[in-house]
Amino acid sequence: MASRLEGKVVVITGTGDGIARTAARMFAGEGASIVGCDLDEAKSAETARLVEADGGRMTSVHPLDVSDEVQVERLMDVATDTYGGVDVLFHTAMTLRWGKPEELSADDFDYTLSKVTTMSFLVAKSAIPRMRARGGGSIVLTGSMSGLNFGTGFTGNTSNIIAYSVAKGAVTRLGIALASHVGRDNIRVNVLAPGPIVTPAVAAFYGEEGTELHALNVGHHLIRRLGQPEDVAAAALFLASDESSFITGTVLPVDGGFTASGGQGGATERAQELVDRLFVS
After folding, report:
1. Is the dihedral of CA 176, 178, 184, 190 positive or negative?
2. Which letter does DSSP use for residue 259 in this model?
3. Which residue is catalytic, options 83, 111, 164, 206?
4. Are 52 and 58 in contact (CB under 8 A)?
5. Structural domain boundaries of the chain?
6. Distance CA 156, CA 272 (A)
7. What pTM, to 2 d.p., does this model score?
8. Has 206 been annotated as catalytic?
9. Higher per-residue confidence, 279 vs 87
10. Is the pLDDT of residue 224 over 70?
């Protein structure tokens, strides 16, 4: 077992599967005590079983809704009562409703803002006093490339998740504002901005290998593959650990170069051929 988080208490939300499950196992393998939560009791319990089978420590609080402030306080109390406090928060839990701008209802838009942005605020708000009591800490929020400042940040520049994009843009701004507020307390706040990550919840959006949809998604990237939960969990581990002790208020894309290329990916052979002709003397 490695020791990058030895002695740290880490709260991870949404540990039923995907990125959060991977992070729980990875962080525990680095010596952390994990407190996880999810609405899905069976999946959350399975994550705890996997962590313990790996030789790690994890307490799972389920079912738990992190859009409810009272339940969020209960989650942080469990971390404090069981392990002595909170050193790290990695927030991944969220849900959304999708639709094009002219089709999305106001209720669906508000629902998405609440379940993405307000949820992020509540878990950070609850973690901060516990981290102050420990002399510092690290908060890692999960934004999205969809919330960054170009296009829609989604497949083919389509707008079916516009409410989600707006909400994740707000999470990015929240992280920067919180970092400014708690820096004096030795608490760091950073935001991850994942690109297309193949998790059980969203794998269908990216298509199976060999399909046109899969090729379209891969074509947005400089690194010619889709992301995996391990890619995001490893970035979160870096931001959670003391290796990033002088990094706060940042947004880190984990997107295979989607953002850097503006969703254009690398130059195709045909494009390069056409341009090269212009330089033939």
Report:
1. negative
2. T
3. 164
4. yes
5. 9-278
6. 21
7. 0.94
8. no
9. 87
10. yes
